[in-house]
Amino acid sequence: MENEKKVMLSGIQPSGDLHLGNYLGAIRNWGKRAEEFDCYYFMADLHTITVRQNPADLRRRTLEQLAQYIACGLDPEKNTLFIQSHVPQHAQLGWVLNCYTMFGELSRMTQFKDKSAKNADNINGGLFTYPALMAADILLYQPDYVPVGEDQKQHVELTRNVAQRFNHIYGDVFKIPEPYIPKAGARVMSLSDPANKMSKSAPEGCVFLMEKPEDIQRKFKRAVTDCDTERCVRYDRENKPGVANLMQIYSAVTGKSYEEIEREFDGQGYGVFKPAVGDAVVECLRPIREEASRILADKAYLESVYRAGAEKASYVANKTLRKVYKKVGFVAR
Ligand code: TRP
Q1: Radius of gyration from C-alpha coordinates of the chain
Q2: Where is this motif: 'HIGH' region (predicted)?
């Protein structure tokens, strides 16, 4: 049965703390995918060093994020969860694919242009060739689907081109993967600036999954509402974006419809509504935070998860790598 499922794979850069926008917008739906797909997720630590990292922070974040993803519902019994640097085939196939990825193609990657503008003092080779490593990440597992956000579609497109180029020369080695655009979850906006998406770069408007309840409450109490005169809880994205955002969050965590929410807070002002949303979010995140902390404290468990994940992943990855090495003409050891 396992083998009949379509394969899905995604990499996650352990470069920042997860927040409510990540959770409600995407992560909370990931657990269910395992019913339909054979899913691989890895912490893309090799990718993070294209920009300078503090080593202790990188190590801590990698484990924290792994724990948080498990706490968000990615069951390690049902998904293959691993750390990219534990599976050397990524770097190995990455090198080979570097030689089948064109300078011109890499030069057109918008993320490279953006990141090199932002890190003008460290435009290193890895930043430039990163999409070839990403192609290797993907192609090693012969996945059918790669769930990615808008910003990564160009890299998946490049992966397809590289795979087709390789297959054209050597025969069918790689499955050509499709980008998988997940059904959009909630698009959570910043609490301090509802015109922009919630983002860790504006921390006052951002609720982190591991944040203390009192801090979460404070952020909701300070959430920007609207300077309209009616001061009532009514869903109007256009004219009341702050309230609409809070309603969306409240709806996403309680399952209530906008009409139900309007009724619930009928005749009450924002002073009642905002802390109520805060409470609901605190309660929604509490089990996640507690479970993530518990997992993180249980080093032996976490270790057993990423070891088993790496073992399963390298078994699959190695099959593809061997095939590639043989095709290009390397002598078998
Ligand atoms: N590049 C992705 C990002 O920045 C992370 C990533 C690395 C990835 N390898 C991948 C995503 C393979 C999907 C598949 O978010």
Answers
A1: 22
A2: 14-22
